[in-house]
Amino acid sequence: MNVRRNAAALAAIGVLAAAAPAVAAGPSPSPKVPVPSGLYGKSDPTYDGVWRQSLALTALHTLGYRPAAGAVDWLTGQQCANGAFAAFRADPAKACDAKTTVDTNSTAAAVQALHAVGGHDAAVTKAVGWLKSAQNTDGGWGYNPGSPSDANSTSVVIGALAATGADPAHVEKSGKSPYDALAGWSIPCDQDGGGALAYQPDKKGKLAANADATAAGVLGALGKGFVAEEGKPPAQDACAGTGHPTPAQVADNGGAYLSAAVAGSGHLTSTLPGAENQPDYGNTADTVVALAADGRTEPAKKAYAWLEKHAGPWATQTGPAAYAQLILAAHAVGAQPGDFGGTSLVTSLAALGPAPVVAGHTENRTKAADGGSHAGVWWSVGICLVAGIGIGFLLSTRKKQQS
Distance between CA 141 and CA 149 in Å, rounded? Predict the structure, then answer.
């Protein structure tokens, strides 16, 4: 779930952003386009404006906040008349045309965010309709309409469909559902990288294990979106099964691969050409969510503990999407995002855009807290701080001592 970018920009920029080493963030370069009011983050939004906004709104809502109206309005204003979203439209007053590069990832992310915050059913319905129209004959989706399907794009669209109540298994093109596409990218257990998912086949049809695609694919196969909680333990710890795997087998086999990948160091590693191996913070955060959703609690918590010790500088450098990823990882394992290695992820994210406000639906969260739910604890602590400090958004307290 790293920042989605168009194919040309991904090669030049996306890999560096995903694998950036943990260093103190210096002054950000001046954006190529003005950063509009309502948008989270101050960096150039050309390639990730809708994506990072959607993640930020989803993460804040997950913690019980109501995002500021200006932040939601900015996102809805990015939608084209046909329902699709581009990565960023500098002039939303100008109608979309054939030159507007819309994409499935931005659209599916916006669907998840707008459905979560509520009150935008018409926009969500139009976006889902556009996504269905962009489905490929193999049942999956590519980044842009008409481009070859890939595991990441297909999975984020599954998340959007599931979030709105649609059954992805019944969203078909030429008799194929997105689960058929994911099964086609699942590497057989007896092959190198068995259990993992490939991003997409190479020109010869060969599948190569890809950790980012695997984390996305596990969530997709489980019918989950950005927000996931601890699932039931898998049927087996190791890769198992032959032939065309079921969605459950795709998820469990992918989970087994990811579990083994973080077993030693607690994190995934990204290798850049000509550079030494580096920790991959963003994909490790996504892996935490995928492992938790697949019921692999221990490796999920181990990877989260590593992030808590090491990922703070990366999030500072990367911005709102990174903070949102870490908040969603904390939610998945039941951790406290108000004390992430001595830093509040909530405060850090809220400081990058319009301040969220207290949501009104607290009863269920409070009741859940009585049974040990971390969500209710975040809510209660936040209410106390709002009353004491008088700022417009919730803050989570730091623990008196770091664990």
Answer: 4
